[in-house]
TrEMBL record:
Protein name stated in the entry: BPTI/Kunitz inhibitor domain-containing protein
Coiled-coil annotated spans: none
InterPro entries attached to this UniProt entry: Kunitz_BPTI, Kunitz_BPTI_sf, Prtase_inh_Kunz-CS
Keyword list, A-Z: Disulfide bond, Protease inhibitor, Serine protease inhibitor
UniProt xrefs under PANTHER family: KUNITZ-TYPE PROTEASE INHIBITOR 2
Pfam family, one: Kunitz_BPTI
Limits of the BPTI/Kunitz inhibitor domain: 19-69
Lineage, broadest ranks: Eukaryota, Metazoa, Chordata, Craniata, Vertebrata
Origin superkingdom: Eukaryota
SUPFAM superfamilies named among the record's database cross-references: BPTI-like
GO MF term list: serine-type endopeptidase inhibitor activity
C-alpha cells in the first residue's frame, strides 16, 4: 500500500467528525448558501460559504446536515 492510499482510505473511526467543527466561511468572496451543525444549539443552521478553504461541517442542504449530525447521533 502506498502512503497516499492509506491517507485516502482511512477507516471511519479515524476520520474527523464534521459535526464537531465550527463552520468556516473561508477567504474567498463567494456567497454559497450552506448548512452547518451548531453543537451548542444542537441544530443545523444556515451560513454563507465563501467557496474555498472550508471544512467538512458544510452541507448543501439542511436535510444532509440533519442526517449526518442529528439522526446519526440519535442512533
Amino acid at each position: 500500500m502506498t502512503p497516499s492510499y492509506c491517507l485516502f482510505f482511512q477507516p471511519a473511526a479515524q476520520q474527523p467528525n464534521p459535526c464537531a467543527a465550527a463552520p468556516v466561511v473561508g477567504p474567498c468572496k463567494g456567497t454559497f448558501p450552506r448548512w452547518y451543525y451548531d453543537q451548542n444549539a444542537g441544530e443545523c443552521k444556515h451560513f454563507l460559504y465563501g467557496g474555498c478553504q472550508g471544512n467538512h461541517n458544510n452541507f448543501l442542504q439542511e436535510s444532509d446536515c440533519v442526517s449526518e449530525c442529528i439522526q446519526k447521533s440519535e442512533n
